[in-house]
Amino acid sequence: MKRDFDEISDDEWVNHSFKPSRVLKSTPSSKSPSDLPSSPPPIESFAFGTKTQQLLASGSPSSSSDDCVIITQPKPSIHADLEDDDVEQNNDRPVSLGNRARRFIIDDDDDEQPAAQMLREGNRELTEVYDVKSCSDEEELELELEDDDVIGKALQKCAKIAAELRKDLYGSTAVCCDRYAEVDSSTVRIVTQDDVDAACMVEVPDFQPVLKPYQLVGVNFLLLLYRRNIGGAILADEMGLGKTIQAITYLMLLKHLNDDPGPHLIVCPASVLENWERELKRWCPSFSVLQYHGTARSAYSKELSSHAKHGLPPPFNVILACYSLFERHSVQQKDDRKLLKRWRWSCVLMDEAHALKDKNSYRWKNLMSVARNANQRLLLTGTPLQNDLHELWSLLEFMLPDLFATGDVDLKRLLNTEDGDLIGRMKSIMGPFILRRLKSDVMKQLVPKIQQVKYVSMGKQQEDAYKEAIEEYRKFSHSHIAKCSDVNLTTVVGVLPRRQISNYFVQFRKIANHPLLVRRIYTDEDVVRFAKKLHPRGAFGFECTLDRVVEELKSYNDYSIHQLLLSYGVSDSKGILSEKHVMLSAKCQALAELLPSLQKDGHRVLVFSQWTSILDILEWTLDVIGLTYRRLDGSTQVTDRQTIVDEFNNDTSISVCLLSTRAGGQGLNLTGADTVIIHDMDFNPQIDRQAEDRCHRIGQTKPVTIYRLVTKGTVDENVYEIAKRKLTLDAAVLESGVDVEHQGDLSEMTMGEILSSLLKA
Ligand SMILES: Nc1ncnc2c1ncn2[C@@H]1O[C@H](COP(=O)(O)OP(=O)(O)OP(=O)(O)O)[C@@H](O)[C@H]1O
């Protein structure tokens, strides 16, 4: 949905010929266009302000055929946290300026100096009045907050800084400018494209480092916070708008204008490590970049340690590392983290920073122990709000720990997603620290993204499998409910153990995706027979007893048994499965129709699934259909990932790329495709939204179509409903104009509730 202003073209930007009214809607400038100066416009004119924001489409069908619902552009579980125990409190480090939460008086005269000049001169001096601690004390008296109102207190501390910063961002007219959407704006103009040209000095032939106008605004936003000594920021532009490029240019400008060459630490998912290195080389070849990952890591580690021990300056500008470095407790990883703590980082930058949504995770704590003393913590994420407000709070606390720290309180309980008032306050206060632009705001020639939900109907065998599973679940639940004193119970929540609920739910999801993911074809007798044949071949190791092999095989699904028989060349009267079995699922049948017709029409497709076992089955499906494909999932070597991406983008004979939503859904540029199929949706719609935007991004020239596959009459439909509801919350918090109170019941239908509803049917 297009907003009510157009992008400012490059020409207009260069010539400063656009009208302020086009960019600062909510607080119209008193100047008429004719008053515009010929020199660079005053700072206030550069806001990309947006007024009312679109509400994400609630997903209500706008047009449909029976099985295929086209929905209007929707606005739209993350990684298991691994354990670590080496979180160190390092209290004797110097407290960084950037980390101390401060309150500033902005010197109005600042604007009269050429801003770039000021930055060059390292003019970071600010009139510091008193720190936030004392400011909050004052306000506590004023507002008489409850002692345990940690959220209120944190917001209160933040409010003062936010107010000053907001003035700086929006100008003096913007006192009333408190809507979250206004963070689309930045009124500050510290650097221009000329500064970028001077800083980047690229060496790649046929490549000019030209920022899009909104990207220049983003870089200015970051520079402003740096200039104001704010120790953190979140760049939350929608996926594919070039956050990587904005961040790299920003780091380059720090060196060029402020004599700040780092060191900087960039942390990202493994899949995009190569891409970061490539973009750094392209945009700022003068930076020395060190990829601290894989086998090279241990070699560097010794050298760097001795370097640091001797107090020498870091022999690099940027270190690139993966999140996994902060998740495990191997000796090597602990040593790595110790090493990273030796340097005083200028900027610690987290890409795909929604990975920090859980402040209790080891990842969050370990990374914070390295980042706490950095001058600045910069978070990049296209999906800052994953599920709930407390997850967003984890990001805020990471960004500015002194401001947003809440100790051990249960944030989940305090940050109630139905508290419209709290959402309003959070929006208002977070605004100045977070810059978020949507594609529809800033890309003039944005290719359309068409959303389709494809409902597929199960065939007899799949339906039978599903019904059997439901029946078994009902029997089990009713017998449990019967044991309870209240026989009128209509819910399984609190009756069945949580694990049991989750197991049943996963079982239903599996069958809705593919019936081969449960064991129905191979009987117990078959399994015993297969075990006898597999056992002497050492399929489970030669030490394993036959009984153990039988037991293990009984827990396998049909597809896994088939694969095992295949790989050990076991022949049996009821041996491996045939091609007809792969088509037992409604989704595979739909793909067998859809993919060849898409290929015929010149489309190239990304297929995402959350499960690698489904990717295995999809590989089989593609072999049966006869389409060429590539595959990328968590088991793909990090060094091979970029090669797969390049191959797919450049070789048009490859029709399909199969990706796991976790490993392939973030950060990758796959603009060679123009179609995305979400085979199985996530409860968390942001995960799918990330996946969609692998090809709906800068560089895409064709309209993009997204298909979501939903198996009719199964829990798939519930997952889709829940995802839509979560998107409503996202719109409420991150975009203005949506009143959460009017969005109906936002409480999530949990797995337990879904299962309870299945009891009644
Ligand atoms: N100003 C620019 N000039 C040329 N190419 C650009 C520019 N900005 C972005 N791109 C290209 O657009 C693509 C998307 O950019 P990038 O990967 O930085 O987006 P992102 O916002 O980080 O996305 P995600 O949230 O998915 O990680 C990349 O291929 C990048 O090289």
TrEMBL record:
Keywords: Hydrolase. Residues 224-402 form the Helicase ATP-binding domain. Pfam families: Helicase_C, SNF2-rel_dom. Residues 26-37 have a biased composition (Low complexity). Residues 590-752 form the Helicase C-terminal domain. GO terms for molecular function: ATP binding; hydrolase activity. Residues 1-46 are annotated as: Disordered. InterPro entries: Helicase_ATP-bd, Helicase_C-like, P-loop_NTPase, SNF2-like_sf, SNF2/RAD54-like_C, SNF2_N. The keyword Hydrolase applies. It comes from the Eukaryota. PROSITE patterns: HELICASE_ATP_BIND_1 (PS51192), HELICASE_CTER (PS51194). This is Protein CHROMATIN REMODELING 19.
